[in-house]
Amino acid sequence: MPTLRQLAYLDALARHRHFGRAADAAAVTQPALSMQIKELEAELGLTLVERRNKGIGLTAEGRVVAARAAIILRDVQDLVDSARVQSGKVLTGPLRLGVIPSVAPYLLPRLLPALQHHYPACAPLVRETQTQTLLEELQRGDLDIVIAALPLGGSGIETLPLFDDPFLLAAPVARADLPARANAQILNQETILLLEEGHCLRDQTLDVCAAGGGDARIGPFGATNLATLASMVANGYGVTLLPTLAIKDQPADPRIRLIPFKDPAPFRTIALAWRRRTPRERDFRALGALLSKTG
């Protein structure tokens, strides 16, 4: 009978397509992982892995088994979570939390101390990456919950809006010609600096530009974080939109002028997302209540 360990190793191999990286992800030596995969193949009477000079691939049978293994592992994790919930305690044990990069550096410094204070038995494990990757890992069962901006696609996902996060126009301080209150039409006259492809904040900024006519000049590069965008603005390379969350409790940069928008101001909505069939909904709603206070 295949063991959960063997299924977990196959799942890691399916995701990383490399014995070394899969072994690192599973916290095991590469020979041990390879041996368990061979034993799994022998148990099932199937060749699951194609071993190549560079990396590996899954056979057609291997892809089917790996997909089933991922479902089994997720269900086992749900079983463990359900048993923990039956104890009646809220937010105890590991909490695998995914957060988008335009939120993590600004929200976590307030959330983590509050979480430790109110729920000391909770052990958060934080993963910071782009929205699509977080959602894939959430649906696969690698994450318990995600903090991201709405809307969020994907079936079987429950969302809980937390707070609205208005945008500000960030311009070089020398731009005294800009009005005290911005509107979307102003963006058509500027070079807009953006995060790289895949960041939801990039798409949200482009949506605001489209509302103003869609004729804005897009800067020639994509940043990986808001700090880089702000630095480019400070040095006169263009303007950008910054969420209020990113400047709240942060030291002001004297080189940047932050301009609020006229009402109705553009904003994003930050939300929690989790798998709809999880047994930990009570935990996640408790986390949402805490986030609403600290956001």
TrEMBL record:
GO terms for molecular function: DNA binding; DNA-binding transcription factor activity. This is Transcriptional regulator, LysR family. It comes from Arboricoccus pini. InterPro entries: LysR_HTH_N (IPR000847), LysR_subst-bd (IPR005119), WH-like_DNA-bd_sf (IPR036388), WH_DNA-bd_sf (IPR036390). Keywords: Activator, DNA-binding, Transcription, Transcription regulation. The keyword Magnesium does not apply. SUPFAM superfamilies: Periplasmic binding protein-like II, Winged helix' DNA-binding domain. It comes from the Bacteria. GO terms for cellular component: protein-DNA complex. It holds the Pfam family LysR_substrate. Belongs to the LysR transcriptional regulatory family. Residues 2-59 form the HTH lysR-type domain.
